[in-house]
Fold:
Amino acid sequence: MVKRIGILTSGGDSPGMNAAIRAVTRVGLNSGLEVFGIYNGYKGMVEGYIEPLTRNSVSQIIGKGGTILGSARLPEFKDIEVRKKAISQLKKRGIEAVVVVGGDGSYRGALSLTEMGINCIGLPGTIDNDITCTDYTIGFMTALGTVTDAIDKLRDTSNSHHRCSIVEVMGNRCGDLALYAGIACGADIIVTSDTGFNEEDILDRLRELDLIRKKKHAIIVISEKITDVEKLAKKVSLNTGFSGRATVLGHIQRGGGPCPFDRMLASQMGEKAVDLLMQGIGGQCVSIRDNKIVAYPIEKALSMPADSRKPITNLFERLL
Ligand code: F6P
Structure:
């Protein structure tokens, strides 16, 4: 049976990664395993920046944002020679299995390591909610809270000045953060890669909100990587009765202590990861699906269509 496991956080950090590190460490230690922290993601694995974790080293971190292990992106990990180096660092220390907390890129690394004989389990750590096999990723709910809070504040000032606030949110190519935040804040327009972007439609809708609905403000929530929001704000000022203002929320969305949901999710998923490794299972990723903690083979998880999750796009339309 496996005796030594490692844990790393990889890709963009997310609130709740520390709660996952704590869960894997505590459940691991309480199950008789030795647990090692691998610092700075796969980079630390290759460089051998690996240290034992104790109960104390993970105390008081469940509510802390960021990741105590640090995170990094290492595209070179695709190279088999780089992975061989990483594996020899693990073998030197007797580490036989690893929990990888990160996004889909990190999952690919975990799958390749498993194929090379190191069992890995992936936990979905990203604010983007772009891992389709899970209803929620660790960090998404906290980021949603941060975005909601920011938009509520923007609404106050927008309302005082007859403005249209255009709020750009993260999500990589996934529109969930924009969609959920737009619904949670009662936005007027939501733009994601799923809704498509049509500037003329947006301007028409704003004119209608101003002239017919007599609204004092308007809120547009838009996913990143769709359009230049500063330019859009200028067009709004020129072509509608609202004065346009753009706000890019940026990395603020990744910070802050995790909300209770993310702490719970990370703790439950961390527990499941250790249980799987103790059964000698690797190449899987942990998910929450219909309120149950489950695991899928990484290969299958990465190819699941986005619409395999409950769609809520219609809800936004019905609330307008
Ligand atoms: O994947 C998380 C994420 O925050 C995305 O939403 C965003 O596109 C990207 O990372 C930003 O990356 P970086 O922190 O490298 O600028």
Summary: Residues 272 and 286 are 7 Å apart (CA to CA). The chain has a mean pLDDT of 96. Residues 12, 103, 126-128, 170-172, 224, 254 surround 6-O-phosphono-beta-D-fructofuranose (CB under 6 Å). The chain has eleven helices and eleven strands.
